[in-house]
Each structure stands twice: as C-alpha cells, then as structure tokens.
Fold this sequence. Notes:
By secondary structure, this protein is an alpha/beta fold. The protein has 2 domains: 46-173 and 328-372, D-Maltodextrin-Binding Protein, domain 2, CATH 3.40.190.10; 176-325 and 390-443, Periplasmic binding protein-like II (D-Maltodextrin-Binding Protein, domain 2), CATH 3.40.190.10. 45% of the residues lie in helices and 14% in strands. It is built from 19 helices and 13 strands. The strands form 4 sheets. It has a 5-stranded mixed beta sheet with strand order 2-1-3-12-6. Strands 8-9-7-10 form a 4-stranded mixed beta sheet. It has a two-stranded antiparallel sheet with strand order 4-5. The protein is globular, with a radius of gyration of 28 Å. The model is unreliable at 1-56 (pLDDT under 50).
Amino acid sequence: MKWNGRQWKMLALCLLAMALLIAGCSGGGKSSGGPGGSSASTGGTQNDQNKGDSGGKAGTVTVKFTNFSASGENEKYLQQMKEEFEKQHPDIKVEIETLAYDDYFTQMQTRVASGTAPDAYELNYENFVSYAKKGVLLDLTPMFDGFDTSVLNKNALEAFSADGKPYGLPASFSNVVLFYNKDLFDQAGLDYPTSDWTWADADAAAEKIRALGDNIFGIYQPIQFWEFYKKVQQNGGSLMNADMTQFTVDTPQNVETLQHMVDRVLKTNVMPTEAQMAGMGDWDLFKSGRLGMLVTGIWAFPDFTQNITFNWDIAVEPGNTAKATHFFSNGLVINKDSKVAEAAFEWLKFMSASREAAGIRVEAGWELPAVTYEDVLDQYLKVTPPDNKKAVFESLNYLVTPPVVEQNAEMTDIIGLHLQAARDGVKSPADALRDAQKELEQRIKLQ
C-alpha cells in the first residue's frame, strides 16, 4: 500500500512525540539532588560523578568531602560554609561526611587502600606527611595558576607541600599558649606573664601560687610526646637529626628538659601528681580556679569563655635557650583519582582562602583561619576574653613541627610510655630517655 504525503507527515509527528515522551520520562538517569530537589547527600552514584553530573540538574557536579574537625558543635558552621559556597557555585554540590576524630584516620586509611576515598578530605599535619609520601594525593600545582596564595598564611600553606609541590591547602591552624589565672597572680602579688618570660620565670611564679593553698597548683603542662617534642626545642634539643635518619632522644639537652618537667611534679609539686588530680582533667582544674597557669591550645577559648568566672588571659609560652611553640594545622587535600578534581579544588579553595569562610570561623571561635585578611584578623582580636589575643599571632613566629615517620603512632606511643614512667617516678629522666632511644632504634624503621 502506498502512503500519501499527509499520512507520511502524521507518522513523522507521531515518532517525534514518542521520542520527546521517552526523553522526558528518563530525565537523563540522574537523581534530583540540588535546588528544588532532595539534598546533596542524595546525589548520584560514583559513575554519575565520573561523568561530571552527579545529582541536581544536568551540568552540576557533586564533590564528596570527608572531615573530622567539624564533629560536634562545629558541624553547623561547616554547613554554613557549604551553603554560602553553593550560592556562589550553583553548578557544584558538596556532599559532606563528618566522622569522629578517634575513628577518622583508621577509616580513611582503609578507604584510600581500597580505592573508595572521597574526592576531597581533611588531614592533620602529621597524617598529611605520611599520605604525601605514599603518593595518594593530587599535586595541586596546575590548579594554583591564577590562585592568589598571598591571602593565606605562608607558614601554614608551605606546611602542606612535599618535595616542593603543593598537595594541600590549610583549613585552619592552632597553636599553644600560656593561659593564666589573673586572680591567683593578684593574690600571690605577682606580675602577669609577658612574652619575655623563661622557664625560670614561670617556675618562680608557680611556686608562689602553689604556696597559696594545699589544693592550689602553680602550673600544668602535660608530660607527653606532644609537649616534649616542643619543649626540647625550647632547650636547644631535638628528637631526630636534621635529615630524619637517626633518633636523638637521649641527648643531654633532652634529659635536662625532661628533668625540668618531672621536677615540677615530684620535687616542687607546683604541678599535681596523677593522684592529686584525682581523675580531673587539666582544663577542669584550671576552670575550677585552682590552677595558676596552664599550657594548652587556643581551641580552649570557647569553653573557657563560657565556663570561667574569674579573670584570665594568655601569653606567649616561655622558653629556655630559645622560643618554640606548637604548630597544629588541618589541611585539605584531593584524592589523586578523583574525577571531579577541579570542582573539589574550588570547594577547598573556598574553605581555606575565602573571606566568607574565614569570617564564619572567627565568629564561631572555630580555630584560627589561615588567612591574611586584616579585617578578619582584627575581628578575631576583638572577640574577648582573652584580652591579649595578639599573643596568638606572636606565637606564630616560633612555630615548630613534630617529627613524622612512617610508624608515627608507634613512635609517639613508645616515647609517651617512657615519659610517663619518668613522670610517675618509676624511672629517672636519663633512664627513661635511654630506654626510649634503644626501643625506637629496635622497632622504628627510618629512611
């Protein structure tokens, strides 16, 4: 049978209508995360991400980001950053996963090894060094083209480089300062600490405060690895040689340093013993008004501001032959196998270097943003107490990083156990460090 022109035209229109109907029903095979649909956490599959269209309307990209520092009350502040970022980048959706710190690095190690790591994730400095050595992080050099790195603190940015190449951006950084109870200093007739103080100055003040009462103590500085690695540098020592090929734990300077720390507990008792602490934490002891000085991190600001009724302030931590203060930083990295690396970098860059994210951090008191914006830093200084917040920035002049080896957790555990033995009077400082040196040489493999 022959069809006339009108019949051919009708067939063509029918076929066209069917094609349009099929296309409309399929929706491109993507889920509906993003504006007008479900949240970003219901975005597409990993295959969708590889195509650069995972969740939301066609053309959007989903970046999977895992972190630990937002766990607890800080999750709402990270959510604020995400919402502001997505306003500025409507074509990028961020799927956030927050894990508890205690479980975080075990999970990340498993995911990286199994090839299921998220597109981007957070690492503290110590783990960053290890991950960079393993070659699992993306070299960010090509993405730095056109990125004004001057808005970031130079020390914090350089910390997340390896072999001269950037593998991460600093999310935030913290340091340790000397907190002090102004009321106890006044009762003891003492001048407040200054940035020029030495160990001797701190010890003299601690003894006068200790004399105020049987349950009042002069100072608390934990005798553990993270304090010891810094403390030895205040006395001209180190735990490893310059090229990280040999341990130097039992040197005379280090023995002198540990002896000084132990004498505060066992000799002058300006620092309480474990029995005298009776299960109380060092922060709780300070907040109770029974401790003159406490060496701890600036992450204590929100807690102390809300829960302390006496007058308190901070100063740069005292040194001996030199100044040295902690450098704690959390970096943001990209999985080298991510299929959405460019979008992931936009998210990391926003968290690390944007004025908006820095402002959220400052207002929340969530660590210190690693930025150089004067107006943001001025805003940080205005949030009191403490009044002497400039000590936070002054301390940055003396930052020191911990030694990092492949068996880092084992190394810190070994040193920590021998420090504890000295603290409790089970071993002399010299014997404790000699035994630590011997055990490290037997169990830890160096380059």
